[in-house]
Amino acid sequence: MRKVALVAWEKVYCPKSMGGLNIKGCKEWNIASVGKLVWQLALNKESLWVRWVHGLYMKTNPDIWTHSPPLDSSWYWRKLNSVKEGVREWYSQSRYILNPAGKYSINSSYLALIGRQQKMEIADLVWSAVAQPKHRFIGWLASLGKLLTKDRMIGMQIQVENVNCILCNEDALESQDHLFAQCGWITAVRQELNKWTRHDVQYT
Ligand SMILES: [Zn+2]
Hints:
This protein is mainly α. The protein is 46% helix and 2% strand. The chain has a two-stranded antiparallel sheet with strand order 1-2. α2 (26-42) packs across α4 and α2 (26-42) crosses α5 (106-114). 16% of the residues are buried. It binds zinc ion.
């Protein structure tokens, strides 16, 4: 069977509270990291590197925001200056504004780069420490509606021999809603569990 990506990469590299897996997107994380150097230059931080760059490239114009990299400058200096354009809006009156203290945070910058994402309301439940890793992963996929159930496989034009749920004998198409809410077999199991734990767990 061919491999399918169940969740878009743009979702995967979000924090867990936003429905992702908290894996860092390399491109965005790199830009956020280079942004720290821009911050050091914008605030003219007292460091050997800042002094060195000022002595080498910024002799005539010490302001990073209006500085143009000389044509014969190194690749990294030109790259840093191109990143500078993308992070310019994070500053107001030369002050970094994504962090209340004005101190540069690679994480705040990273979050600004990946943009505003919808909050996953049940993230704490899905990633609960008492759940087993496999169950957390299934819970995560289910909360995004991305479980590879047979109805979705048909949508992806993957050949499926038997499209019905294998847990019950209801001739019902296997879908996420069926598995979690409608399936008679699962409902019976849930009722027994509710009796045993004296809780009333329902799927919504
Ligand atoms: Zn079923």
